[in-house]
Amino acid sequence: MTNSVSKIFGLFAAVRFPKKMQTFINKTYIKLFKIDMSEFKNAEYYESLGGLFTRDLVKKREFIKNENALISPCDALITELGGINDMKALQIKGFSYSVNALLGGYTLRKDKEKLKGGLFMNFYLSPSDYHHYHAPCSIRVLKATHIPGALYPVNLKWLHKKAELFCENERVVLECETASKSRFWLVFVGALNVGKIRFLFDENIATNAKKEEQSYYAYKDLNLFQGEEMGFFEMGSTIVFLGEKAFKPLVKSGEKVKFTQEIIAEKE
Predict the structure, then answer these.
(1) Is 9 within 8 Å of 195 (Cβ atoms)?
(2) Known active-site residue 146
(3) Contact residues for 260 (Cβ-Cβ < 8 A; gap 6+)
């Protein structure tokens, strides 16, 4: 049911209404969700609601490259973070989930074992946030797995309501490696009204489609530099970071973070 609602909403968001009507829709959305448009083009520029959702920054955000720190991949609320114990992480306080289940069957057991005692961090992108995501550091992307599933909402209300929500929702898992060979995973979780999860480096990864089987993609020389755009959500959603013991948080649960802000330290 939630998948069908998301597809219908996606179709509506793609419609280009007459300019005056579209501008009214855009301004209403901006006002409703209290969006700060100071870094983006004005409401009249966007020809569809989908265009407003996936808006680009007018000017690139500057940051000092630091190979020993990871920047936030997105603008988001850190809903929960902490240590990975017994291969469990928290979707929200009181609701844990299995890291093994989240990563799916294409992640090797020996690689999952690297996460024991490691770090998890959950990023919630609200409907008002900038929806693009970027490489948190200079990385080599090793694998991608698309795991079909439901599209439950991922807001705080549902995180307190639905156990194992991240493991039930559709998601894309990226396995990555830093320049110093530390391993981490980024899990892009679908949600209600998220039309697609897009990746600029591989258009074959198709989400919110009629697929029931997991899909696996391996990369030989896929290298991204720190801050490079990786893709975008077509509406707000969640990103989960899972890293081995080398990573330590520089932020706290409940903190609002911005893309380019240093949030995780990597031990040398």
Answers:
(1) yes
(2) no
(3) 61, 62, 63, 71, 72, 227
Catalytic residue, chosen from 6, 72, 75, 132, is 75
CA distance 92 to 121: 11
Q: Could you give the domains of the chain?
A: 2-53 (no CATH), 69-266 (2.70.70)
Answer yes or no: are the C-beta atoms of 232 and 131 closer than 8 Å.
yes
Query: Which of the residues 131, 132, 134, 146 is marked catalytic?
Result: 134
Residue type, 111: D
Residues of the chain with pLDDT under 50: 1-6, 8
134 part of the active site: yes
Percent of all residues in the chain with a pLDDT value above 90, rounded to a whole number: 68
pLDDT on residue 182: 95
110 phi and psi angles, rounded to 5 deg? -65, -30
38 catalytic residue (yes or no): no
234 φψ region: left (φ > 0), alpha (ψ -120 to 50), beta (else)? beta
Catalytic residue among 6, 72, 126, 237: 237
pLDDT given for residue 7 in this prediction: 54
